[in-house]
Specification:
- With 398 residues, this protein is of the alpha+beta class.
- The chain has one domain: Cytochrome-c3 Hydrogenase, chain B.
- The protein is built from 16 helices and 8 strands.
- Strands 1-2-3 form a 3-stranded antiparallel beta sheet. A 3-stranded antiparallel beta sheet has the order 6-7-8. Strands 4-5 form a two-stranded antiparallel ribbon.
- A hairpin with a 2-residue loop joins strand 2 and strand 3.
- The longest helix is centred in the N-terminal third of the chain and has 29 residues.
- About 4% of the residues have low confidence.
Length: 398
């Protein structure tokens, strides 16, 4: 080695090289398709490297104008409309609408009909949350839980279909009660046939299967190191921010907001006659939102078991005029749907169709926090955070 080469090598070894790579900010269009295919959403995200600096959700691709459609249809026809808003929670969507009409008409719903509504509402909650339990791990790279959760969900969906005739769009509730099962004849003469034969036994077996699959999902998902690494401490929403942005349901309870309309709201179904726990978590991250939904499935199973042991024979329908005309007035009814608070504000000027209808959908409010919670997140965490909020775009755009 020559002296020149030696001096050059010494210079290179002693040199302190500090190079800062500068990256130019860019705008990233995500969509228009939600990564978990729950609908059509576009995010306009500004990123610097792997870090998101701002996000603007672009909604409205699925807008169908349900509020205006409701204002040109009869009250009975609207029932078929509203269960399509959040298509994963079809039966639960009907309850606040029907209750708003019954409130204006001062109709007392028979006890048996109320219990049937409660049973099917909680089955809908189980069905909705099991869909989350299958799709969310898949979004994070775990494919196996999909098979487990959807398998047991089918048993619950079969029971809902056996009663209502529809899997996603039941159109089962009626002002004053519920629709008799096909072939049941007069609801007063054949009350034993208002539910399909073997429904209670089938429900008990389905609830046992759901309990069992939750144990399996605990092993597959809850303790999964990959899932935990992708969700713990990711997308943290403090309780004050959850309230500020109008979050409700599991998303709010995962941030420590101890509020559930089944327990704390105006009574709309006989939840005061069953025992259940309102599940909350304190961390407010994506993992907490998963945990709340997981435990809510177990609580829904607990409620259904009590309900089928409590329900008694009786009429399904209160006395309602053949031509349904709602007296002048206004009412707002909100219920605890699987994704959060679902409310209908109804104004009647008398007659067969409403004057105005305003819908408060859970997913719309839950999605509103995206610009805040995604700011500063890593690009790979976008899907993990959005998926944990469990929104349906039909419920957003309605």
């Amino acid at each position: 080695m020559t002296d020149v080469d030696a001096r050059a090598a010494m210079h290179l070894s002693d040199a302190s090289v500090s190079v800062e790579l500068e990256t130019q900010g860019m705008t990233l269009n995500i969509g228009p398709q939600h990564p978990s295919t729950h609908g059509v959403l576009r995010l306009v995200a500004k990123v610097e490297g792997e870090r998101v600096t701002s996000v603007q959700p672009v909604i409205g691709y699925m807008h169908r104008g349900y509020e205006k459609l409701s204002e040109v249809r009869t009250y009975a026809q609207i029932t078929a409309l509203v269960n399509r808003i959040d298509w994963v929670s079809g039966f639960a969507n009907e309850i606040p609408w029907i209750r708003a009409v019954e409130k204006l008409m001062e109709i007392e719903v028979p006890e048996r009909a109320q219990w049937i509504r409660l049973i099917l509402s909680e089955m809908t909650r189980i069905s909705s949350h099991l869909l989350f339990m299958s799709s969310y791990p898949l979004e994070l790279g775990a494919a196996t839980p999909l098979m487990y959760a959807l398998r047991e969900r089918e048993y619950v969906m079969d029971l809902i279909e056996s009663v209502t005739g529809g899997r996603f769009h039941p159109n089962f509730n009626r002002v004053g009660g519920v629709k008799p099962v096909a072939g049941g004849g007069s609801t007063q003469k054949k009350v034993s046939q208002d539910l399909p034969a073997g429904f209670f036994q089938g429900t008990r077996e389905a609830m046992d299967r759901v309990d069992s699959v939750m144990d399996e999902l605990d092993e597959l998902v809850t303790g999964n190191e990959m899932i935990r690494a992708r969700t713990i401490g990711v997308g943290v929403i403090p309780p004050e921010k959850a309230i500020e942005f109008g979050l409700s349901g599991p998303n709010a309870r995962a941030s420590g907001v101890d509020f559930d309309l089944r327990r704390d709201g105006e009574p709309y179904l006989p939840y005061d006659q069953v025992d259940f726990d309102v599940i909350t978590e304190q961390t407010g991250d994506s993992f907490a939102r998963y945990l709340v939904r997981k435990e809510e499935i177990r609580q829904a199973v607990r409620i259904v078991r009590q309900a089928i042991d409590t329900i008694k024979p009786g009429p399904l329908q209160a006395k309602v005029p053949r031509v349904l005309k709602v007296p002048k007035g206004q009412a707002y009814v909100r219920t605890e749907n699987p994704k959060g608070e679902m409310g209908f504000y109804l104004i009647s000027e008398g007659g067969r169709i409403p004057y105005r209808v305003k819908i408060r959908s859970a997913s719309f409010c839950n999605l509103s926090i995206l610009p805040w919670v995604l700011e500063g997140a890593l690009v790979p965490d976008l899907v993990a955070i959005m998926g944990s909020l469990d929104f349906v775009l039909g419920d957003v755009d309605r």
